[in-house]
């Protein structure tokens, strides 16, 4: 595996953790879920995450995280710099949502990412992680960016 593919694999792992990860804190408001509406909102959250990464929009990215992730900005800045330097492009073709129960769910991105002409998957069967609903909005719950 060449160095570009190695960097690609490391970056994708970190992005997947951020996009869909859970830290065990539901952060929810206890209002419960409404099925299709929540599924669509979770899909929108993951799509917005990847779009903001491609656009280099750190403010939007920071707003996608749970209130429990108050210190995520430094990690986001580093990740945005890396995405910009490597010229990574995402082709998010879908978001698979499962285990939607009240204000928690698991989601996984579907599609590919490319760097220097090499493509790799955004997710796999093992990449389902939690998102949480806070104050009526779905948020990314993983605060341990790139750990």
Q: Element order, helices and strands? A: HHHHEEEEE
What CATH first level would be assigned? Alpha Beta
Number of helices: 4
User: What is the mean predicted local confidence, pLDDT?
Assistant: 75
- Global shape: globular
In CATH, the topology is named: Nuclear Transport Factor 2, Chain: A
Cα(first) to Cα(last) distance is 23 Å
Number of domains: 1
Helix content: 25-40%
Radius of gyration: 15 Å
In total, the number of strands is: 5
Q: What is the makeup of the main sheet?
A: 5 strands, antiparallel
CATH structural architecture: Roll
Poorly predicted sequence stretches spanning 5 or more consecutive residues: 1-14, 16-33
Determine the CATH superfamily.
NTF2-like, domain 1
Structural classification: alpha+beta
**Beta-strand residue fraction:** 25-35%
What layout of secondary structure does this protein have?
Elements: H1 3-20, H2 36-55, H3 58-63, H4 73-86, E1 89-101, E2 104-115, E3 118-121, E4 129-134, E5 137-140
Antiparallel strand pairs: 1-2, 2-3, 2-4, 4-5
């Amino acid at each position: 595996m060449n160095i570009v593919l190695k960097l690609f694999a490391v970056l994708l792992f970190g992005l997947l953790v951020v996009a869909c990860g859970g830290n065990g804190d539901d952060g929810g408001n206890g209002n419960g879920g409404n099925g299709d509406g929540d599924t669509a909102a979770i899909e929108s959250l993951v799509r917005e995450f990847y779009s903001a990464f491609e656009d280099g929009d750190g403010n939007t990215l920071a707003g996608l995280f749970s209130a429990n992730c108050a210190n995520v900005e430094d990690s986001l800045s580093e990740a945005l710099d890396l995405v910009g330097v490597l010229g990574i492009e995402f082709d998010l073709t879908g978001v698979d949502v499962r285990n939607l129960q009240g204000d928690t769910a698991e989601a996984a991105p579907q599609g590919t990412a490319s760097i220097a002409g090499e493509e790799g998957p955004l997710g796999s069967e093992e990449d389902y992680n939690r998102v949480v609903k806070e104050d009526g909005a779905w948020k990314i719950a993983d605060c341990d960016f790139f750990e």
